[in-house]
Amino acid sequence: NSVQEAQDLALIAHAATLESLKAIEARDVKALLNAGDVLDQSCETCHRQYWYRVAPGSGADTSERSKSGS
Question: What is the DSSP code string of 17-64?
């Protein structure tokens, strides 16, 4: 269901954020870049599903917002 999917994406973003903070504290550039990639992908996945009216490059309205009328 979409609520569980949104929660899963939020958990992935949260975990990647924590990994980013650990990498920053360790001054580990490679780990920060890896965590940043995971964070970016989780944000983009969520935005494509729940934020963008038209997903970049697709021309198709994919957002849940448009379906709910908000």
Answer: HHHHHHHHHHT-HHHHHHHHHHHHHHHHHHHHHHT-SB-TTT-SB--H
Token digits for 69?
Answer: 């009328």
Task: Give the residue with greater pLDDT, 67 vs 27.
Answer: 27
Residue 52 φ then ψ, to 5°: -65, 135
pTM of the model: 0.67
Mean pLDDT rounded to a whole number for the chain = 83
* CB distance 16 to 43 below 8 Å: no
Query: Which DSSP letter does residue 54 get?
Result: B
